[in-house]
Amino acid sequence: MGIEPVTLDDARVQTAATLHHYAMEDADRADVWIKRERPDLAISSLLSAASRESQAAQSIDMMSTPHEPARTIYYRSAAALAHQACVVLAEQGLRGEPDGKLRAELEELAK
To answer: In the chain, what are the domain boundaries?
Structure first.
């Protein structure tokens, strides 16, 4: 019994799993910052999480054979994290006194 060689696809799956793990840690940190009313740090954590999750999806995309549903799940997660960052940013904008059109645009983004 010899040691099985690690393929490039195996390495990409491992890379994606590691990136996903760190993305979820960033997302958990964002939740803490939101509860502590620190939107600045929440935004940073959410953007970091979205970036890592996107990198995980791209790593799966580079595989020689399709790897679903992991690929789609990582992309969906990245989009959801980016959207959450967008909501927090829009809410920050609404804390000021934006006029009509800007207020309406921020309210739309905060959904």
So the answer is: 8-109
Categorize the per-residue pLDDT at 67 as very low, low, confident or very high, splitting at 50, 70 and 90.
Answer: confident
How far from chain centre, in Å, is Cα 108?
Answer: 21
10-49 exposure pattern, b = at least 16 Cβ within 10 A, e = fewer: eebbebbeebbeebeebbebbeebbeeeebeebbbbbbbb
- Cα 29 from Cα 96, distance rounded (Å): 26
Q: How confident is the model at residue 1 (pLDDT cuts 50, 70, 90)?
A: low
Q: Spelled out in words, what is the top-level CATH class assigned to the domain 8-109?
A: mainly alpha
